[in-house]
Write a structure and sequence with these properties.
The chain contains 15 helices and 15 strands. With 383 residues, it is an alpha/beta fold. It folds into two domains: 134 residues, Aspartate Aminotransferase, domain 1; 237 residues, Aspartate Aminotransferase, domain 2, CATH 3.40.640. The strands form four sheets. The chain has a seven-stranded mixed β-sheet with strand order 2-10-9-8-7-3-4, sandwiched between helices. A four-stranded antiparallel β-sheet has the order 11-12-15-14. A two-stranded parallel sheet has the order 1-13. Helix 5 packs across helix 11. The structure holds pyridoxal-5'-phosphate. Keywords: Aminotransferase, Pyridoxal phosphate, Transferase. Its cofactor is pyridoxal 5'-phosphate. GO terms for molecular function: transaminase activity.
Length: 383
């Protein structure tokens, strides 16, 4: 029998898929994988129904012109600088293939990222032939913080890019303008690309996050996701806002993957983006998720967990001495993501768990109830 290439042999089921599978198997509440329980807004669904049967053939690889214009208008960027992708996941992969790689006869390019790290960043860098290098975030009683000195000292002659995520999954951190200014200064002095994963750009609980592109338009690629913004993660519509003049080359790499993103869904997102903005959809989303966050933060604290309150995203991280992800799903019916899912090189903080609160209030209540029962059971077991 022929063998699979080594890179395929080493690619295993992700922890996210595994926890969703275990949640289904044990009938657990799924506070693991980050997909919402709510249905997408009616204005999006109706637009998709209208598009099927009228827009059924290929679009250009860079995307349907109406969608590039709509994304550009929403971000305050020229539509010509937008490349539409099949989700932010593909956007990140296209950028990995476009910005760094192996170097014949010498060592590969390096890309810097922070740890905890979203699960696709490290394998995508490796598949592109580059070397991922992570800098751990600090965690203490006050919460997560960026170690700027460590980031600075991680830059080498081989560094090509810094890949950032703000609002940050899983920590919920929103980097301040002055932190981003320091990162931009570092990128400028070392001539690095900046990849800014902003899929949670509309999910914040304080001040609106600064978009890195505002500070360094000449070197920033911004990644976005209609799936995250419009509660339709299965639609796989994402985008890259490129520095001026680079979109056609990025689209050239993008066309070697899925060629183009399903066209009726591109058209639906094109119609929905201005409606979402005009009708205050994101404000309602933030208000609703803010309440669910407060419910989960309060409930977990009552159960004795140490909770790091997020400033953005629909995730929070927490620690509890008696909780462990495998046991929680199997015996207590609550699926969460273990901290090690976000650590590729460094050790995760002990007992770190990620909880998603893009789930219904009923699911969050049920999960808290089951965690409370688990504590009673655990204390009986100890006695
Ligand atoms: C930080 C981050 N980037 C990218 C993605 C992928 O987004 P998409 O579903 O649009 O591929 C996710 C999904 O959870 C994410 O959390």
């Amino acid at each position: 029998m022929p063998q699979l290439q080594r890179r395929a042999q080493s690619s295993a089921e992700s922890v996210f898929a595994r926890m969703s599978r275990l949640a289904a198997q044990y009938g657990a509440v799924n506070l693991g994988q980050g997909f919402p329980s709510d249905t997408p807004p009616a204005f999006l669904l109706e637009a998709a129904r209208r598009s099927i049967g009228t827009l059924d053939q290929y679009s250009p690889p860079a995307g349907l012109p109406s969608l590039r214009e709509a994304i550009g208008a929403d971000l305050g960027v020229d539509g010509a600088d937008i490349v539409v992708t099949s989700g932010a996941t593909e956007a990140l992969n296209v950028l990995a293939l476009s910005l760094y790689g192996p170097n014949e006869g010498s060592l590969p390019d390096q890309v810097l990222m922070l740890e905890p790290v979203f699960d696709v960043y490290v394998p995508q860098a490796r598949l592109a032939g580059a070397e991922p290098v992570t800098v751990p975030m600090n965690l203490d009683a006050a919460g997560w913080s960026l170690d700027m000195a460590a980031l600075r000292s991680a830059v080498t002659e081989r560094t090509r890019a810094i890949l950032l995520n703000s609002p940050f999954n899983p920590t919920g951190t929103v980097f301040s303008r002055s932190e981003l200014q320091e990162i931009v200064a570092l990128a400028r002095s070392n001539d690095l690309w900046l990849i800014s994963d902003e899929v949670y750009d509309e999910l914040y609980f304080g001040e609106r996050p600064t978009s890195l592109r505002e500070l360094a338009p000449e070197r920033t690629f911004t990644v976005g996701s209609a799936g995250k913004r419009l509660e339709a993660t299965g639609w796989r519509v994402g985008w890259i806002a490129c520095p001026t003049g680079l979109a056609s080359q990025i689209a050239g790499i993008r066309q070697q993957g899925s060629f183009c993103t399903p066209v009726p869904l591109q058209a639906a997102v094109a119609a929905a983006l201005p409606i979402a903005r005009a009708e205050g959809f994101y404000e309602r989303l933030r208000a609703e998720y803010g309440e669910r966050k407060n419910m989960l933060v309060g409930g977990l604290r009552e159960l004795g967990a140490g909770v790091y309150e997020p400033s953005g995203t629909y995730f929070l991280t927490a620690q509890h001495p008696a909780w462990q992800a495998e046991t929680l799903v199997q015996t207590h019916g609550v699926a969460v993501i273990p901290g090690q899912a976000f650590y590729a090189f460094h050790a995760p903080p002990a007992g770190l768990l990620r909880f998603a609160f893009c789930k219904s209030r009923a699911e969050i209540e049920r999960a808290l109830g089951q965690l409370a029962t688990s504590q009673t059971t655990d204390s009986h077991e100890v006695v």
